[in-house]
Amino acid sequence: MNSPDASADQVAQYLRDNPGFFDANAELLASITVPHPHGGRAVSLVERQVDLLRDKNKALEMRLAELLRIGQENDAIAAKLQHWTRELLRVRDVRELPARVAEGLANDFSVPQAALRLWGLEAAHADLPAAAEVEPEVRALADSVKQPYCGPNAELSVAAWLHGGGSQTRSIALLPMRVGAAPQAFGLLVLGSPDPARFQAGMGTAFLERIAEIGSAALSRLLP
């Protein structure tokens, strides 16, 4: 004797194999009832199908609304990136670039904390605040970071560059400055926030990569 589950599978398979079954037996649609998902009452198969379609439509509407929200956020970020880039292009005195890079991120992207260190600059620029001495370990760290790092501030030494010495920094992003695809970095841009969720591990870094590329291109004017 077949089990109930086997019989149910056979009925389901039969209906899939014979899509015209209810066309030939339309009266069954009105007579078959099934339990309502949100109550104990029974409803017709047609009504249950309408409920399923309505739920599916709501799910699609929610997904569409989410996609629109993400698109609007990306458009806003792209506009800020364009403004930041334009302001860097307008800088005539190259010695102003390090400050303008960090200040622009704070103003355009509302980044609470930003710090920049550069090395290997022309001798004429060695007195810039951004050219302050950097430990060999930090230079090695910058060389090892091939794309922006985002995550918690796990007592990283570079957090000390940030406002307040990093005491209020809960999340951090590290953006190495390098010329094109050069393996060695010539600087490190550090972004920080007291919000643990601002720079999360696993978050998308596409815009941070663009920031690193544009910042590197602008700051490379300080190199020999």
Low-confidence stretches: none
Tell me the helix content: 40-55%
Question: What does the average pLDDT come to?
Answer: 88
Stated plainly, the CATH topology of the largest domain is called Beta-Lactamase
What is the alpha-carbon Rg in Å? 29 Å
CATH 4th-level superfamily of the largest domain: GAF domain
Principal-axes shape call: elongated
- The total domain count is 2
Order of helices and strands: HHHEEHHEHEEEH
User: What is the beta-strand fraction?
Assistant: 5-15%
Structural class: alpha+beta
How would you describe this protein?
The chain is an alpha+beta fold. The protein folds into two domains: 27-90; 94-222, GAF domain (Beta-Lactamase). The protein contains seven helices and six strands. The protein has helices at residues 4-17, 21-24, 27-31, 45-89, 97-109, 136-144, 206-219; strands at residues 33-35, 42-44, 113-118, 149-152, 171-177, 187-193. The chain has a four-stranded antiparallel β-sheet with strand order 3-6-5-4, sandwiched between helices. A two-stranded antiparallel sheet has the order 1-2. A hairpin with a 6-residue loop joins strand 1 (33-35) and strand 2. Helix 4 (45-89) runs antiparallel to helix 5 and helix 4 runs parallel beside helix 7. The longest helix is centred in the first third of the chain and has 45 residues, at 45-89. The radius of gyration is 29 Å and the shape is elongated. The protein starts with a helix and ends in a 5-residue tail after the last helix.
